Amino acid sequence: MSSTAINPSEWVSRYSDYLFNYTITRVNDRELAQDLISETFLAALKAKDNFKGEAHERTWLISILKRKIIDYYRKSNSAKGKAEVRMPDYQDEEGSWLEQRVADPYDKTAEDNLENTELSLAIMDCLALLPPKQAQIFKLKTIDEFDTEVICNDLKITASNLWVMIHRARKAMMDCMKKSWLD
How far apart are CA 94 and CA 10, in angstroms? Predict the structure, then answer.
């Protein structure tokens, strides 16, 4: 794919659902997710001449979106802004746990779309039931795969405290998902 092959006029119809599902699991706020995606499209439009064609358009957009999400968390934790913020590298064919469950938009049926939306909503609903700090730690460690040390430094907690909260959050999420998704 060359840089002339990208088609910004198709980005919203082709990638917005995928980008939204990716974002909502990381920020758990629909309006913020939509804002971040809009910022991503704008940044990509400004940088489209820099697109080398070495990756698929969607992969390129995800990399821009990741930077937008990181910037959001850095700004929201401004007192902790100097801390290192890491997110897993997106790998097109070998994505992380969540990317594997957010179906590829090129390989979806109507049933897949409905199931994916329902799963995303169930995850968001279950996250919303967790105590705020537990939900934040769960997202940082389990979804965004931040290092334990980074989370502990940012939140000023011990590693053992983090693991207790992760254990409780995972148990609560499992119980909630069993009730809301599997039943």
Answer: 25
Closest to 66 in 3D by CA, of 93, 36, 91: 36
CA angle 14, 88, 3 (to 5 degrees): 40
Q: Do the domain assignments include residue 100?
A: no
Task: Categorize the per-residue pLDDT at 108 as very low, low, confident or very high, splitting at 50, 70 and 90.
Answer: low
Total of domains in the chain: 2
Cβ atoms of 140 and 49 closer than 8 Å: no
Most confident range, picked from 86-90, 171-175, 179-183: 171-175
When pLDDT is averaged across residues 16-42 and rounded to a whole number, the result is 89
Residue 28: helix, strand or coil by DSSP?
coil
Q: Do residue 83 and residue 116 come from a single domain?
A: no
In this structure, are 17 and 49 located in the same domain? Answer: yes
Q: Are residues 123 and 79 in the same domain?
A: no
